[in-house]
């Protein structure tokens, strides 16, 4: 191999290095909970409802919402492991705004967490938009929940199975719609006890697919 070929190969390799680094940077996951402290999580009311036990966030008590206030997200991939006890109700809000009390109804969506509660809308549903009425997860057993938002498309997975694939129509009216905002966990009622762990999120770039 002559010197000119070697030099050309070296130039090509060097040219590719910045691209590879950039792609790696885009895939960084943000750990949202260290298992010990609430960190960027902030309750809007009744802070006593939220506790940390054995490396998990526990929601148990009257209505309250725990907001992740570190930053707002638009396109993202969110992951959490969830454990529900029988007849429990909870939820994960996204693209929402912080409200000092009450239900987060001013913006965004709620991904339902509920396997056996009296409300028939089950885990993975997009509340007020797309309902699932058969339980895709079990109480007293950890399950993985993924929420992926890219553009107008929302994908929800339970233990890797796609249960929701919804594209928001253009010009959708009302507060339940995509935009940009915070995540929030829900404590629904005194009889509900739900645990969350391994919460993490990464921002998606325009060329990534769900």
Structural descriptors:
210 residues, mainly beta, Jelly Rolls, 5-stranded antiparallel beta sheet, disordered N terminus
Describe the protein's topology.
Blueprint: H1 3-26, E1 30-31, E2 41-43, E3 50-53, E4 56-60, E5 64-73, E6 76-84, E7 90-96, E8 109-113, E9 143-150, E10 153-158, E11 161-167, E12 181-187, E13 193-203
Antiparallel strand pairs: 1-13, 2-5, 3-4, 4-13, 5-12, 6-9, 6-13, 7-8, 7-12, 9-10, 10-11
Could you walk me through the main structural features you see in this protein, from its secondary elements to its overall organization?
The N and C termini lie far apart (44 Å). The protein is mainly beta and 210 residues long. It is built from 1 helix and 13 strands; from the N terminus they run αβββββββββββββ. The protein has one domain (30-203): Exo-inulinase, domain 1 (Jelly Rolls). Helices cover 11% and strands 40% of the residues. Strands 1, 3, 4, 6, 9, 10, 11 and 13 form an 8-stranded antiparallel beta sheet that branches. A 5-stranded antiparallel beta sheet has the order 2-5-12-7-8, with no helix packed on it. The longest helix has 24 residues, at 3-26.
Quick summary of this structure?
Helix content is 11%, strand content 40%.
- Contiguous runs where pLDDT drops below 50 for at least 5 residues: 3-25
Through-space gap between termini? 44 Å
Query: How many DSSP-defined strands?
Result: 13
CATH architecture: Sandwich
Beta-strand residue fraction: 35-45%
The Rg value, from CA coordinates, equals: 20 Å
Q: What do we call the CATH topology?
A: Jelly Rolls
Major beta sheet, specifics?
Answer: 8 strands, antiparallel
SS summary, helix count: 1
Helix content: 10-25%
Instruction: Tell me the CATH superfamily.
Output: Exo-inulinase, domain 1
What's the average pLDDT? Answer: 88
**CATH class placement:** Mainly Beta
User: What is the number of independent domains?
Assistant: 1
- What overall geometry do the principal axes of the alpha carbons give? globular
- Output the helix-strand order: HEEEEEEEEEEEEE
């Amino acid at each position: 191999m002559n010197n000119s070929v070697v030099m050309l190969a070296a130039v090509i390799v060097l040219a590719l290095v910045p691209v590879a680094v950039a792609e790696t940077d885009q895939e960084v996951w943000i750990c949202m909970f260290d298992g010990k402290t609430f960190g960027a999580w902030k309750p809007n009311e009744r802070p006593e409802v939220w506790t940390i036990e054995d490396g998990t966030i526990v929601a148990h008590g009257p209505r309250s919402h725990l907001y992740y206030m570190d930053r707002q997200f638009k396109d993202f991939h969110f992951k959490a492991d969830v454990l529900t006890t029988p007849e429990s109700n909870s939820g994960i809000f996204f693209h929402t705004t912080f409200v000092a009390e009450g239900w987060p109804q001013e913006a965004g969506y709620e991904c339902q967490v509920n396997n056996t509660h009296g409300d028939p809308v089950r885990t993975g549903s997009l509340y007020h938009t797309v309902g699932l009425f058969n339980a895709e997860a079990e109480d007293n057993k950890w399950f993985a929940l993924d929420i992926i938002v890219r553009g107008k498309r929302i994908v929800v997975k339970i233990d890797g199975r796609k249960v929701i694939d919804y594209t928001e129509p253009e010009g959708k009216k009302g507060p339940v719609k995509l935009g940009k905002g915070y995540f929030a966990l829900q404590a629904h009622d005194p009889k509900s006890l739900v645990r969350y762990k391994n919460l993490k999120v990464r921002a998606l770039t325009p060329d990534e697919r769900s």
